[in-house]
Amino acid sequence: MATPSQLPEFGPDAPVYWGEACRHLIKRDRVLKKLIPQHPGAFLQSRGDAFVTLARSIVGQQISVKAAQSVWDRFDALTRKMTPAQVLKLKVDDMRAAGLSARKVEYLVDLALHFADKRVRVNDWPSMDDEAIIAELVAIRGIGRWTAEMFLIFHLMRPNVLPLDDIGLQNGISRAYFSGEPVSRSEIREVAGSWAPYCSVATWYIWRSLDPLPVSY
């Protein structure tokens, strides 16, 4: 079993905190002590596009990672490039045929309008704290706290986000810590008590325990 000192070096594209986070989590959590070494050299990566990240999160709401990827691939194929302007040109029927619900079509169009009309402060986000960004994002139709948290993790690469409503995190904690029994929000918080200030990293590895392919938005 790997010890913190035996962890592989992470490449230059890894978040600056990733190695330290892994050492912290291996010391503090019995499950992550075994889980992290099973994914050597892997780390969270951002797609670098705020609109695409939020759009992928909307597509992925309340469905499995596999189903979300399938729908996203069909949706993405409708555009030359996934931009707000391109989305606003799409026909509703074509978006529905890609597998999007009527509600998700509405949400994606509203998201595109917010970006096209510059109603979101993209340039200010890096300097804002997590809760301030969440408050701004949930003002957009169809973006709830879960979607905002996925944005914090996958786009802004914030290290200490704990998405309590995430199905993958709930299932992963249920299997790894509670023998498959359903878990409450308070039980998730209790498990994550030793993760701070790297809850995002721990969550990413818990996701890996369910699906070895890194999830991304």
Write the layout of secondary structure elements.
Blueprint: H1 18-28, H2 30-35, H3 50-59, H4 65-76, H5 84-89, H6 92-97, H7 102-116, H8 130-137, H9 145-154, H10 167-177, H11 185-191, H12 199-210
Keywords: DNA damage, DNA repair
InterPro entries: Alkylbase_DNA_Glycosylase/TA (IPR051912), DNA_glycosylase (IPR011257), HhH-GPD_domain (IPR003265)
GO cellular component, one term: protein-DNA complex
CATH level-4 homologous superfamily of the largest domain:
Hypothetical protein, domain 2
Distance between the termini: 31 Å
In the CATH scheme, the class of the largest domain would be: Mainly Alpha
Structural class: mainly alpha
Which percent range fits the helix content? 40-55%
Q: Compute the CA-based radius of gyration.
A: 18 Å
Outline of this structure?
The protein has helices at about 20-30, 30-35, 50-60, 65-75, 85-90, 90-95, 100-115, 130-135, 145-155, 165-175, 185-190, 200-210.
Describe the protein's architecture and organization:
53% of the residues lie in helices and 0% in strands. The protein has 217 residues and is an all-alpha fold. It folds into 2 domains: 4-45 and 162-210, Endonuclease Iii, domain 2 (Orthogonal Bundle); 50-154, Endonuclease III, domain 1 (Orthogonal Bundle). It is globular, with a radius of gyration of 18 Å. The model has no long low-confidence stretch (mean pLDDT 92).
Defining traits:
about 220 residues; mainly alpha; Endonuclease III, domain 1; 2 domains; about 0% strand; globular
